[in-house]
Amino acid sequence: MKKILFCLSLSLCTLIPQVASAFEATREGSVLRFTGGIDKESEKAIVQHLRSGASTLIVNSEGGDAGSGQSIAFEIIKQEVHVIVDKYCFSACANYLFLAAKEKSLMPGAVLGFHGGIYYGKDEFKIEKGDSRLDTAMKKAFQKLHKTETALFKKMGINHQIIKDSADLTKVEKRPAVVTIETDGETFTYSAEQSEEIKNLLNKLQKERKIFKANIAYASEQSLNKVYFPSKETLMSKYRVKGISNYPYPSNQDEVDNIAKAIAITFGNEEGFIIVGEFTSEKK
């Protein structure tokens, strides 16, 4: 009898298409340079380096998997790591890696970008009677991530409200979750609204005792090309973020827009990129 394998992955949205993340992690003495997405593989690499003496993490990351980001954050706290943002740190990178650091820095021209996260959508994931097996599994995974995130922010001593505020400042029209099912070398992709099609495929695979992997990417109202870049003063006074040693911040909206244009080029985003700073109308 073949064993039926059911795997669930719940990710924060990133600022590039959601594919298997490519990353680079290079070490020189106590300094680890990391570029790429956050997932189980990059989590393993980063944690291994931190446990073997890397005390400074220089990062460029578009974000990625929430669970992996949380795991890295706890290790950053344990090892008292200094996190330096080289050019960009978005989504799970900002929510977890940057905020967890004992010392936090930005290089000139770098941007720290928040656009919501697990805490923001907590009320949408209550398990209800009649939920499908897939819906229930997704909600349970989300609830676990939410519980861990709450514990993490309590440990960091940071106001969790930054997640909700950043989501409110960057939200767009809500998009449904994307469900991807892989089996026997084939990949099936559905919108979560296609519940009947998903149910039929899962029933078919179970009857045939096929091994399959189901991934759910939940985007909620988070934007793929819009982030909130708070000032040092806002981080410290409103959200109780400590340990910020160097945080060069744009002096006007033109500088913010120029950084946004550079980010759009970096990611090849033809739709452009928006940074909500302390000068924009959304903040007034």
Helices and strands, with pairings:
Layout (H helix, E strand, L loop, with lengths): L9 E2 L11 E6 L2 E6 L3 H12 L4 E6 L4 H14 L2 E9 L1 H9 L2 E4 L4 E3 L19 H24 L4 H10 L7 E6 L2 E6 L3 H13 L5 E5 L8 E3 L3 H6 L6 E3 L6 H15 L6 E3 L8
Helix pairs in contact: 1-2, 2-3, 2-4
Q: How many individual helices?
A: 8
- Strand/helix succession: EEEHEHEHEEHHEEHEEHEHE
Structural class: alpha/beta
Approximately how much helix is present in the residues? 25-40%
- Rg, Å, rounded: 19 Å
Strand-residue proportion: 15-25%
Number of strands: 13
Measure the end-to-end span.
Answer: 62 Å
Uncertain regions: pLDDT < 50 for 5+ in a row?
1-10, 13-20
How confident is the prediction overall: mean pLDDT? 86
Largest sheet: 7 strands, mixed
Overall, the morphology is: globular
Give structural attributes:
single chain, 284 residues, alpha/beta, 7-stranded mixed beta sheet, 36% helix, globular, disordered N terminus
Would you kindly provide a written description of the structure presented here, covering whatever features stand out?
The protein is built from 8 helices and 13 strands. It has helices at residues 40-51, 66-79, 92-100, 133-156, 161-170, 195-207, 232-237, 253-267, and strands at 10-11, 23-28, 31-36, 56-61, 82-90, 103-106, 111-113, 178-183, 186-191, 213-217, 226-228, 244-246, 274-276. Strands 2, 3, 4, 5, 6, 7 and 12 form a 7-stranded mixed β-sheet that branches. Strands 1-10-8-9 form a 4-stranded mixed β-sheet. It is globular, with a radius of gyration of 19 Å.
